[in-house]
Amino acid sequence: xxxxxxxxxxTAATDWRALGTTVRLVVTDPALLDSCNxxxxxHLAEVDAACSRFRTDSELVxxxxxxxxxxxxxxxxxxxxxxxxxxxxxxxxxxxxxxGSAMAAIGYDRDFTLVQxxxxxxxxxxxxxxxxxxxRLDRATDTVTVPMGVRLDLGATAKAWAADRxxxxxxxxxxxxxxVSLGGDTAVAxxxxxxxxxxxxxxxxxxxxxxxxxxxxxxxGLHGGGLATSGTAARRWQRDGHELHHIVDPGTGxxxxxxxxxxxxxxxxxxxxxxxxxxxxxxxxxxxxxxTGRGLPARxxxxxxxxVTTPGWPTPVPVEAAA
Length: 323
Known about the structure:
By secondary structure, the chain is an alpha+beta fold. The protein has a domain at 2-30 and 175-321: ApbE-like domains (T-fold, Roll). It is built from 8 helices and 19 strands. The two termini are 16 Å apart. Residues 208-213 and 316-323 have low confidence and may be disordered.
């Protein structure tokens, strides 16, 4: 499922790629688009250098060689880690940043465009993730301790957190309404256009790089906070006859088996929304009840295409076949 922002006439938008995904920036003052885009590019470059699991020179990868010793990290990485650990606690461990080794084991150890081209064999073993409670983060000193052998993956939180951070930063700097979407995970800040930011939530059944042409969709108006989606249909690949995807169950270390194809959630922040979408896929049949109990508006698409929504999902919610 993707979330695509439609730019009203009084806004300006630009699209490009970073962090291995699509980037969309929309501002309510067209004269400020270029300057905002420069700030966004700088911010995302800093996030990549701090949080990437695929760069040998990133701060996150450097933790792999710490041998369990406390490491002083940048405030940026410390903030990203705090968000990841907070998401783990809020989802009862369904979202767990200690799945890094499991992600590498199933072949997702590089940018997704390269994963699809890789034909190395994989060995699928059930192995529970070490567990987020083993990671120690001291925000007073920005020091983190990762047990020996534990590899971190911030994929379930960092992109959405970066969108939140960027939207807030740009709205403060420009004094206008701002929308930042990273791979469909969308954060807004500042004054929204009349009627809110119009977001088309599209169910995707094919490769992530392809423009969706089929599947149900809904258009919602977003006035604040964030909207995020997670799914098992888009980022898929095959190895040794195994059909794999990037949503890992921390309880098994394997791609999750879930009744849901995609889940979209609106929340106070994009990071909260994205953690909830991933957790919903992991929780499976109990996802609808879990989301409802936390007061999170959500749209869940089952493997057979059936659409289920929880109370508070933004209206109007027309569900129809895309042309």
